[in-house]
Amino acid sequence: MKDAKPLLRFNGVKVFSATMAQERENLGEKVTAWIRERPQYQIVDTIVTQSSDEAFHCLAITIFYWEDRPAK
């Protein structure tokens, strides 16, 4: 496949989601704040998902990251 993404290593995932209009409007700021508070995380991929039914619209932002962890 020509357009396939290369395999990215990650050891952490954070999912942000919102269904209410006000929450969806503020979701970007929430994600940005979370990333800024964790400069040690290397973001390796992000997926934005939107789904809806007759009554609700859901927006989800999934962040995949790599965190260097001390060897045990």
What would you note in describing this structure?
The longest helix is centred in the middle third of the chain and has 16 residues, at 21-36. Helices cover 22% and strands 42% of the residues. The chain has a three-stranded antiparallel β-sheet, with helices on one face. The chain is built from one helix and three strands. The model has no long low-confidence stretch (mean pLDDT 89). The chain has one helix at residues 21-36; strands spanning 12-18, 41-52, 57-67. It is globular, with a radius of gyration of 15 Å. It is an alpha+beta fold and 72 residues long.
Instruction: Give the SSE order as H and E letters.
Output: EHEE
Number of strands: 3
Biggest sheet, spatial arrangement of strands: 1-3-2
**What is the terminal separation in angstroms?**
38 Å
Number of helices: 1
The oligomeric state is single chain
Largest sheet descriptor = 3 strands, antiparallel
- Approximately what portion of the residues adopt beta-strand conformation? 35-45%
- Secondary-structure-derived class: alpha+beta
General form: globular
Q: What is the mean predicted local confidence, pLDDT? A: 89
User: In percent, how helical is the residue content?
Assistant: 10-25%
